[in-house]
Amino acid sequence: MIKVTTLISNFLLFSSIYGQNTITELYNNKDFEALVKLEDRAGSMNGEELYMIGNAFFHLENDTKAVEFYNKAIEKGFDNGISHFYKAVSLTYLKKYDEALKEIDISLQKEPTNQEYMNQKGLIYQSEGLEDKALDYFEEATRLPNTYGEPYFWVAYIWHGKQDLEKALKLYRIAAEKIPHQNNYYVATLLSIGQLEYTYTQNYQKSALAYEEAIALRPKDYKVYSKLIKAYNAAKEYSKAENVFELLKTAYKNNELKGDEMKFKSVNIDEYEWNKQKLTVFKFLEDPKNVLDISYKVFLLNKTGDKVERTFTVEKTIQTAGGNKHFLCEQKEDAHFTYPYGWKTDTISLEDLKKAIALILDDKLQKTATTK
User: What is the pLDDT of residues 316-365, one digit of tens each?
Assistant: First the structure.
């Protein structure tokens, strides 16, 4: 009997140790699906293990369960800044802002110089739509030891929203120095710099540099490629723009693109103005093979910029006696116009296309054919 009891005791001890190792190993391996399946063993877990289960639910976006297990962890003695912090984050996602603020304040009482905790307090107010209040705490977070970096982005972001573009750009540049490169908000900062250098300062070289770095960090984020192409074209670095476009064509052929690029088979490669009206240029990702296949489409917007006024296309045609393979055309609801401007090769420069459209808009080039 003594031997049997000893065997049972040893088995239970072994099971307990094995269970502890399993929870820790699963957590370290980020096997959150397996971790949450252990929730029915919560009564035998210590505070840290309960916290791990809570964090597994958090990563699986089950914030209600996450809060439940953070509470269990705290009750079992895992009562520290990180437990209250993650509880506050989950409560924020659940839109329980008052409770979230109480929890983040407990975190800050335990670790008053923790920059990430102070940043989260700003995020709670921001989630409530209280941006000025949020700005106070984001700025306070930037005055703490910089271990996280993210609040520098949010300070710039709020000033960007206030349309103080000069100040926002300056703050984004500070953020780029302070945020670790592995943090997602570093890329967000680069994209904001690229946008403001393109639209506000019109320093297209600096815009391109920001987009280049963003792509180097996230080479599969193909939406940024179009922004880089536009920056290159605006800077008249046409060969660089064409090289990036070729990368997009490869991604298109490999079915790697998403959204409008894949749906419409074209990419926005340039934006410019004529007589205070905006034109946007799209280049198609499939090479034109048949008659009427389009390689470029250009939209002229009205003066308020909310409606397309005219649509121009470059279309493949039967090679004429003059040797042209592509002609400049215009599309309207009930008509199709052809202009006496064409290209003898498949290489059509953006610069030449814009020149041809300017001739039409300035009434220096008249249509030669109309099709209903």
Answer: 987 665 688 999 999 988 888 999 999 998 899 999 999 999 999 999 99
Structure token pair of residue 218: 């996230």
3-state DSSP assignment of residue 359: helix
Can you name the residues that pair with 315 across neighbouring β-strands? Answer: 294, 327
Q: Which two tokens stand for residue 212?
A: 């280049």
pLDDT in tens, 202-242: 999 999 999 999 999 999 999 999 999 999 999 999 999 99
**What is the Cα 333 distance to its own chain's centre?**
36
For 244-281, give the DSSP string.
Answer: HHHHHHHHHHTT---THHHHHSEEEEEEEEETTEEEEE
Distance of CA 218 to the CA centre of its chain: 10
Rounded distance between C-alpha atoms, residue 64 and residue 240, angstroms: 50
Residues whose CB falls within 8 Å of the CB of residue 14, separated by 6 or more in sequence, listed in order: none
How many other C-beta atoms can be found within 10 angstroms of the C-beta atom of residue 165? Answer: 15
Token readout for 117 is 């905790």
CA distance 298 to 353: 9
User: For residue 369, which phi and psi values (nearest 5 degrees)?
Assistant: -150, 145
pTM score:
0.87
Quote the CA–CA distance of 341 and 163 in Å, as a whole number: 43
Q: How crowded is residue 259: how many other Cβ atoms within 10 Å of its Cβ?
A: 9
User: Smallest Cα–Cα separation from 71: which of 49, 54, 94?
Assistant: 54
- For 135, 186, 208, 340, 363, the CA distances from 205, given in Å and listed in that order, are 31, 20, 5, 35, 33
Residue 128 vs residues 96, 101, 158, 341: alpha-carbon distances, Å: 10, 11, 14, 56
